[in-house]
Design goal:
CATH topology: Rossmann fold
Order of helices and strands: HHHEEHEEEEHEHEHEEHEEEHEHEEE
Helix content: 25-40%
CATH architecture: 3-Layer(aba) Sandwich
Number of domains: 1
Number of strands: 17
Strand order of the largest sheet: 9-8-7-10-11-17-14
Number of helices: 10
Largest sheet: 7 strands, mixed
Oligomer: single chain
């Protein structure tokens, strides 16, 4: 049966401060990829055998990360590509463009990138960790912005396979990879990265401070954290703790105000904390498409009052903050 190959990624990591931990990472990766851990494991991997070779023309700095053009495959082969990639439904992060085939994902992840790209320290030559990276869309944009190495971690097997599909289409020589791990499984206090991104993760953590400390431990002194998470309107000290589900999600624990989030980062010893952006999430940015046919944001809001979730709580708004590791 087809297996996922991480040899190139581990070779890149061998030149970083993660080198002493590679045996541990290889063992955890192998455990996460045990075929018995997901019933569709084998089915998803067969998709990789149906993909064309990497395209000669690649663009990592466009809204839709792109390989090839509309003329680089015949109509018949493009139809086969569409069928193969549909086998990895649902596609949540993107958009992508492969040989003229546009994958219109649930999220306009390019909008989030636009909100933060001009506010962070330039990524040129930097080693980057992307926590909860999904299928790696933002990782490719980080490479397009000049990053020297991008490591993503995400425990969702489908996301990892989607990343492997994009890697085959874009080229396997790029210094980027996604491991099927949680941040908590990574070796601690490595100081291995110049920039660490945590986007859409903090509110899923039962202990937000543990998450902030774990993020700080992956950064070198003076490195930069880019944190994006749900927030509420309010002042210092205000936090929403949903009594049950939030926007139909059962695993949302803490949603602070922006001022509270700044205070949390300062309490975790981050320096020069800056609030970069606060933007309500709209049904233009997150919605169902043919590439993600399940429920999406419109189904999570009160139909009579879209400023509230279906549970009567404040509708999603997201903040981006940057901070420096001590």
């Amino acid at each position: 049966m087809r297996t996922l190959d991480f040899r190139d990624l581990f070779a890149h990591l061998a030149a970083t401060r993660l080198a002493p931990h590679l045996t541990q990472l290889e063992r955890l990766t192998a455990l996460a990829l045990e075929p018995t851990r997901h019933g569709r494991h084998a089915e998803w991997l067969t998709v990789l055998d149906q993909l064309p070779q990497a395209a000669a023309e690649v663009a990592l700095d466009e809204a839709a990360v792109r390989a090839g053009s509309e003329h680089s495959l015949t109509a018949e082969d493009q139809a086969k590509l569409r069928e193969a990639l549909m086998g990895l439904h649902p596609w949540r992060k993107g958009p992508w463009s492969f040989h003229g085939l546009t994958i219109d994902t649930e999220w306009h992840s390019d909008w989030k990138w636009q909100r933060l790209a001009g506010a962070i320290t330039p990524l040129t030559g930097r080693k980057v960790l992307d926590v909860g990276c999904g299928n790696g869309y933002h990782g490719w944009r980080m490479l397009g912005a000049g990053a020297a190495l991008v490591l993503g971690v995400d425990p969702t097997l489908l996301s990892v396979v989607q990343f492997q599909a994009t890697r085959q289409l874009l080229g396997e020589h790029w210094p980027i990879g996604v491991l099927p791990l949680r941040l908590e499984e990574m070796p601690t206090d490595t100081g291995a990265f110049d920039t660490v991104f945590s986007m859409g993760v903090l509110y899923h953590r039962r202990s937000p401070f543990d998450h902030l400390f774990e993020l700080r431990g992956q950064l070198r002194s003076g490195g930069e954290l880019v944190l994006e998470t749900l927030v509420i309107e309010g002042g210092a000290g205000e936090v929403l703790v949903p009594p049950g589900r939030y926007a139909k999600m059962h695993n949302v624990w803490f949603i602070p105000s922006p001022q509270t989030l700044v205070a949390w980062l300062e309490r975790a010893k981050f320096r020069h904390v800056r609030l970069v952006d606060v933007t309500p999430t709209t049904t233009a940015e997150q919605r169902a498409t043919e590439w993600m046919r399940f429920e999406s944001l419109a189904d999570f809001l009160d139909p009579a009052d879209p400023s509230r979730t279906c549970e009567g709580l404040p509708a999603p708004r997201r903040a981006v903050l940057v901070a420096e590791a001590p």
